[in-house]
């Protein structure tokens, strides 16, 4: 291999040998330390060094500088393992020399030169290494210095910020150690409490707690300094140096050591006295009646609920309502009414305050007294009586002397239960009893009577859903012709199959349905149902015509839809109009004038028969009746009942019935007697010329299929010969 390319200096050097040397050098460097370059690159670099050193040894004039350069280059190339230097120095003396010796005439100076180069290489290496370490150390030092400066600056900044916040804050800040010693407070805190800062610094946190702090507050603070919590936040009342209380929003945070041990506490206190006072006023307004300043119903219910929740005590309520207060308001004006209410409130408070009872205004002219730890009805009645007496004294307002009475209801939790709503419901019911008994009275709650009232309203409430669920059924009671005992009609009578209470008769719910207005829907349903049934009978037994007689409540008569509805039902069910009879009560008919009377006429025009039910129990004016489109009078059960008896009573009722029958016939009305229970009654009615009768003697109200069975028998036996009971039939 030629040495061209390595220059004259390398002339005469065994280049292949030099490469092998460089390869061994690189291998040794790789084994002894870490090679920052690839091994091929390392070999190239080291070959350059080898040739340079060889050139120095073989040069005409010697310089040891290349040794220093190579030593420095080794460090620059990061071949800085001390073992590599060792290897290099010894390899130069051992393996390098043979590379150059064959080309030299005199080997002695060459040896000399190599050893000099060994020395300068080691020296260059060492200096370069030291320089590098110095450089590294100074850059680390510079970095360390600048880091410390930054940390100190940050600390100074945060301290300054903290100071600015601490001194300038509008909220009070205090720092205390774990013994409660106050380390520092800011001006705002000192101002809030009215002490100089220095004086506050001598106070212990424990002295700032107060017996009327929220329960558990001190305990919570103790747990905070034990490290169980990181912060506490409460509304707290402080007392200023001048004794004036202030309300604050207090937040205490725990500051810990790095290892988590509690170190000190920081309290931040905001004066919320204004807000607190406003809230207090709002709360007062929310819980008090503005006119009388008595607690209002909201507050009363809270108190009642709290008292009832404590089952160690019985609670009593005395519920009051001013009698006829409306007439004071209407007659003398609301100003006088308000004055009366204010005086009543004052008298109530005066008469119960000593005993520790609570007087409240429920609204309007209703007041209530809550008796805590009630000893029983006797105590409550005593309260009611003394209150009623206190109210009885005349009230002077605007030159008027007014005598005011009130009605009172007394209720004990022992009887009405521990639910506030139940207690007040009982009070309400009882107040109605007191009112019904007259003015200025009290009534005591009676659970048995209350239960009856409750079922009444419970039934009323359950009616609509019951109708939707189909809990109603219709039964039919035969109406017979007295002359031959034929069933000419049936009266449709509604019943309620109540899922809990069993079958209920109309006396239990018809009045309720009238009061709630549900009677319109219920009546419509009964009408539809009965007409459909009657139409089926008519289709199946055309030779035994049966009229279906349906009760219509007064409320329905005034319903403008009634005529259209009846017409619609007839069309839908296909029932001939003359087979439908509507029973109207006397009062419903008598009250009619104008529209309703026209409605009756239009019903009659449809071909429907109209009957007056329970005739004789109201105040019917027969002359007026003449102008009405009525076909049938149903005599109330009372007259017929009298006819059961022998003697003067029976005779008198018989004469009344006789007169009524004659009058009715004079008006072209058919007479039906109700509640005929015995054969004797039936006979006497027949003798008086009464046309038809209905009652247990002829048959009780029964489900439709029993009527169907009877009709089927009648059809088989032909008209007029049925098993129907005539006047002589024996009773059930
Ligand atoms: P009402 O229209 O006078 O019906 C006759 C009532 O007398 C029926 O009572 C019937 O069961 C009863 N009764 C029948 N025969 C005798 C008897 O021989 N002796 C006695 N003491 N009573 C007898 P009920 O079924 O309890 O019906 C009571 C009232 O309820 C009915 O009196 C009627 O005014 C009303 N009502 C019944 N169903 C309806 C209805 O669908 N709509 C309306 N608005 N009222 C109805
Ligand atoms: Mg009836
Ligand atoms: Mg009747």
Shape: elongated
| Average pLDDT, all residues | 88
| Rounded Rg | 58 Å
Strands across the major sheet, in which order? 13-14-16-17-18-19-20-21
Count of helical stretches: 27
Q: What is the domain tally?
A: 4
**CATH architecture designation of the largest domain:** Alpha-Beta Barrel
How big a fraction of the residues is strand?
15-25%
- Largest sheet report: 8 strands, mixed, barrel
Characterization of this structure:
The protein contains 27 helices and 21 strands. The protein is of the alpha/beta class. It has 4 domains: 15-132; 171-278, Beta-Lactamase (2-Layer Sandwich), CATH 3.30.450.20; 291-445, Reverse transcriptase/Diguanylate cyclase domain (Alpha-Beta Plaits, 2-Layer Sandwich); 459-717, TIM Barrel. Strands 13-14-16-17-18-19-20-21 form an 8-stranded mixed beta barrel, surrounded by 4 helices. Helix 2 (39-58) packs across helix 5 (107-168). The radius of gyration is 58 Å and the shape is elongated. The protein binds ligand C2E and magnesium ion (2 copies). Ligand C2E is lined by residues 477, 493-494, 505-507, 510, 523, 526, 551, 553, 583, 613-614, 637, 674-677, 695-696, 701.
């Amino acid at each position: 291999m030629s040495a061209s390319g390595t220059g004259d200096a390398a002339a005469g050097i065994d280049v292949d040998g030099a490469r092998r040397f460089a390869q061994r050098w690189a291998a040794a460097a790789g084994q002894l330390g870490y090679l920052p370059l690839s091994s091929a690159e390392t070999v190239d670099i080291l070959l350059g060094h080898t040739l340079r050193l060889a050139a120095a040894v073989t040069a005409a004039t010697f310089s040891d500088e290349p040794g220093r350069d190579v030593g420095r280059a080794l460090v620059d190339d990061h071949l800085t393992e001390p073992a590599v230097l060792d290897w290099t120095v010894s390899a130069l003396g051992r393996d390098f020399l043979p590379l150059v010796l064959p080309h030299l005439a005199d080997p002695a100076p060459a040896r000399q030169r190599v050893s000099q180069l060994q020395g300068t290489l080691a020296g260059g290496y060492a200096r370069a290494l030291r320089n590098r370490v110095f450089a590294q150390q100074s850059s680390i030092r510079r970095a360390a210095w600048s880091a410390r400066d930054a940390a100190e600056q940050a600390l100074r900044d945060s301290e300054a910020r903290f100071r600015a916040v601490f001194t300038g804050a509008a909220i009070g800040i205090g720092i205390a150690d774990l013994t409660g010693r106050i380390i520092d407070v800011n001006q705002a805190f000192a101002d809030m409490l009215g002490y100089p800062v220095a004086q506050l610094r001598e106070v212990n946190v424990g002295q700032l707690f107060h017996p009327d702090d929220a329960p558990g507050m001190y305990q919570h603070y103790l747990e905070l300094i034990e490290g169980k919590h990181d912060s506490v936040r409460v509304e707290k009342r402080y007392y200023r140096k001048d004794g004036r209380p202030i309300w604050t929003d207090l937040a205490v945070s725990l500051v810990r050591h790095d290892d988590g041990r509690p170190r000190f506490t920081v309290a931040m206190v905001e004066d919320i006295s204004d807000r607190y006072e406003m809230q207090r006023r709002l709360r007062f307004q929310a819980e008090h009646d503005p006119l009388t300043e008595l607690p209002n119903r909201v507050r009363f219910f809270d108190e009642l609920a709290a008292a009832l929740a404590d089952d160690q005590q019985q609670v009593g309520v005395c519920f009051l309502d001013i009698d006829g207060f409306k007439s004071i308001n209407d007659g003398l004006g609301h100003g006088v009414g308000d004055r009366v209410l204010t005086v009543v409130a004052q008298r109530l408070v005066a008469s119960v305050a000593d005993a520790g009872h609570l007087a409240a205004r429920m609204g309007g002219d209703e007041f209530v007294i809550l008796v805590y730890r009630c000893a029983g009805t006797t105590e409550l009645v005593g309260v009611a009586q003394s209150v009623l007496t206190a109210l009885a004294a005349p009230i002077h307002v605007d030159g008027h002397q007014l005598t005011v009475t009130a009605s009172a209801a007394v209720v004990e939790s022992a009887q009405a239960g521990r639910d506030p709503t139940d207690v007040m419901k009982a009070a309400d019911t009882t107040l109605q009893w007191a009112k019904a008994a007259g003015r200025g009275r009290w009534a005591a709650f009676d659970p048995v009577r209350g239960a009856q009232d409750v079922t009444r309203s419970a039934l009323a409430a359950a009616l609509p859903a019951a109708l939707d669920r189909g809990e109603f059924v219709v039964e039919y009671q035969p109406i017979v012709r007295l002359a031959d005992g034929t069933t000419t009609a049936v009266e449709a009578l509604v019943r309620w199959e109540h899922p809990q209470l069993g079958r209920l008769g109309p006396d239990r719910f018809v009045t309720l349905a009238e009061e709630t207005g549900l009677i319109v829907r219920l009546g419509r349903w009964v009408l539809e149902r009965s007409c459909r049934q009657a139409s089926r009978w008519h289709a199946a037994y055309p030779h035994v015509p049966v009229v279906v007689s349906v009760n219509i409540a007064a409320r329905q008569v005034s319903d403008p839809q009634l005529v259209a509805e009846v017409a619609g039902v007839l069309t839908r069910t296909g029932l001939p109009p003359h087979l439908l009879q509507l029973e109207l009560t006397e009062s419903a008919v008598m009250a009619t004038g104008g529209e309703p009377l026209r409605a009756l006429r239009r019903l009659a025009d449809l071909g429907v028969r109209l009957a007056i039910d329970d005739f004789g129990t109201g105040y019917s004016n027969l002359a007026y009746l003449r102008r009405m489109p009525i076909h049938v009078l149903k005599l109330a059960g009372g007259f017929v009942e009298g006819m059961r008896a022998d003697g003067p009573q029976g005779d008198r009722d018989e004469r009344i019935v006789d007169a009524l029958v004659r009058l009715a016939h004079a008006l072209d009305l058919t007479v039906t007697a109700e509640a005929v229970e015995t054969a004797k009654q039936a006979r006497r009615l027949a003798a008086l010329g009464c046309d038809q009768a209905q009652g247990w003697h002829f048959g009780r109200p029964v489900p439709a299929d029993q009527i169907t069975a009877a009709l089927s028998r009648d059809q088989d036996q032909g008209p007029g010969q049925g098993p129907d009971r005539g006047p002589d039939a024996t009773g059930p």
